[in-house]
Every structure is written in structure tokens, then in C-alpha cells.
């Protein structure tokens, strides 16, 4: 039975990685649609969300089946429980990509705002965070998970900076308020995507150590476990 359970865990990890790859691809496409003002690509992201939704349900069913059949304990239980949470986070990332696609579609029909906002740089940072978070899950690497946690502060700072720029812009350009609000929403979705990548990294650290980082008052000051020595 142990051999069958180990095989099932590997299949679960593979399916979770596949779902993560779908979310990562959707996020990249939505950001490309934004940068190129490509309405067709934005529509593709929106229409493809159903595939990720279906994959989320499949992974959740697999997790519940493993819990019922094998009743795992200790590290195996933490792994399956974490996959359930990571699976939900990945589905939310797909929803965020859809929301970015919708804003990109709207803004593509409007004149560009005369505000120096470098969305490609922030977007690439968020994509890097998600990619590294997924790698940390596949490799069960605390080193990569910790890197994701440190990167989150940069995205938070960029989000605050963008908001400040847009609020100032709206003060002097009341005729472009709706466009500025849509742009602020876009920045908010990017910040949320970074948060979800951070959540995934925290779950990897939980799998490795049993430490629940979200319960720390200040995540940056929390004792983050290092890679176990081999």
C-alpha cells in the first residue's frame, strides 16, 4: 500500500504542477495583452479560464481521495493538505489573469494615460515570483520559497508607488478618472498575484517544517526554516 500511496503522491504533484503551469501561462498572456494592447489575446485569456477551473476540481478530488483511502500522517498529511490550499491559490491566480485581461481589453480601446507606469517590469517580477514559487513546490526547496517571500516587498512598494502616481494624475485630469481607476485596479490585481505566489511559498515552507507563517504578526520577521541538510 505504501508503494501505491507514493505513486499517487507523485501523480498529484504532477497534476498540481500542470495546473500551476496553466496559471503561469495565463498570467504571462494577460500581461502581453496589456503591453501590446492586444484585445484578441486578452479574450483568449478570459475564455481559457474554464480549463483551469476544471483542473482545480480534479486536483481537489484527488486530494480528498488520498485522504480517505490512505489517511496520511505527519509530512505526508502536510503535503496533501498544502496541495489543497495551493490548488485554490492557483485557481485564484487564473482568476487574477482574467481580471488583468479584462482591464487590458478596456484600456486597449482608450488612449494611453500620460503617466510613467512601467507595468512590464512589475509584471515580470510577479511572473518570476510565481515561477519560483512553483519551482519551490516541485523541488520542495525552502531556499526558493524564501526568495519569493523577499520579492513580495518589491511588488508591494511598486503598487503603492503606482497608486500615488494615479491619484495625483486624477487630481489634474478629472476627464480620465475612469481610465485611471481601471489602471489602479490592474495594479491591484498584480499585487494580489504576488500575494498568491507568496502564499504558495509559505505552504512549501509549511510542508517542510510544519511552521504556519501566516500566523506570524510580521511575516518578514518570522523565523523562516532553511533547507534541510541532506
Word description of this protein:
The chain is mainly alpha-helical and 230 residues long. The chain has one domain: Phosphate transport system protein phou homolog 2, domain 2 (Methane Monooxygenase Hydroxylase, Chain G, domain 1, Up-down Bundle), CATH 1.20.58.220. It contains seven helices and no strands. α1 packs antiparallel against α3 and α4 packs antiparallel against α7. The chain is elongated and about 65 Å long. The two termini are 27 Å apart. The C terminus is likely disordered.
Name the overall outline: elongated
The biggest sheet amounts to: none
SSE arrangement, N to C = HHHHHHH
Number of strands: 0
Amino acid at each position: 500500500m505504501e508503494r501505491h500511496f507514493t505513486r499517487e503522491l507523485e501523480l498529484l504533484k504532477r497534476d498540481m504542477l500542470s495546473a500551476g503551469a496553466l496559471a503561469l501561462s495565463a498570467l504571462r498572456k494577460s500581461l502581453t495583452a496589456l503591453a501590446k494592447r492586444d484585445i484578441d489575446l486578452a479574450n483568449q485569456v478570459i475564455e481559457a479560464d474554464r480549463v483551469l477551473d476544471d483542473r482545480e476540481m480534479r486536483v481537489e478530488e484527488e486530494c480528498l481521495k488520498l485522504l480517505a483511502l490512505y489517511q496520511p500522517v505527519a509530512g505526508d498529511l502536510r503535503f496533501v493538505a498544502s496541495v489543497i490550499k495551493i490548488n485554490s491559490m492557483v485557481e485564484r491566480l487564473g482568476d487574477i489573469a482574467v481580471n488583468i485581461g479584462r482591464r487590458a481589453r478596456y484600456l486597449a480601446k482608450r488612449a494611453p494615460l500620460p503617466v510613467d507606469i512601467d507595468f512590464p517590469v512589475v509584471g515580470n517580477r510577479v511572473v518570476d515570483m510565481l515561477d519560483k514559487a512553483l519551482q519551490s513546490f516541485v523541488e520542495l526547496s525552502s531556499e526558493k520559497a524564501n526568495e519569493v517571500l523577499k520579492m513580495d516587498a518589491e511588488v508591494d512598494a511598486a503598487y503603492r508607488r503606482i497608486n500615488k502616481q494615479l491619484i495625483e494624475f486624477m487630481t489634474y485630469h478629472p476627464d480620465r478618472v475612469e481610465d485611471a481607476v481601471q489602471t489602479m485596479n490592474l495594479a491591484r490585481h498584480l499585487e494580489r498575484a504576488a500575494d498568491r505566489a507568496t502564499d504558495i511559498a509559505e505552504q512549501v515552507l509549511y510542508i517542510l517544517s510544519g511552521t504556519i507563517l501566516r500566523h506570524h504578526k510580521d511575516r518578514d520577521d518570522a523565523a523562516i526554516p532553511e533547507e534541510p541538510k541532506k
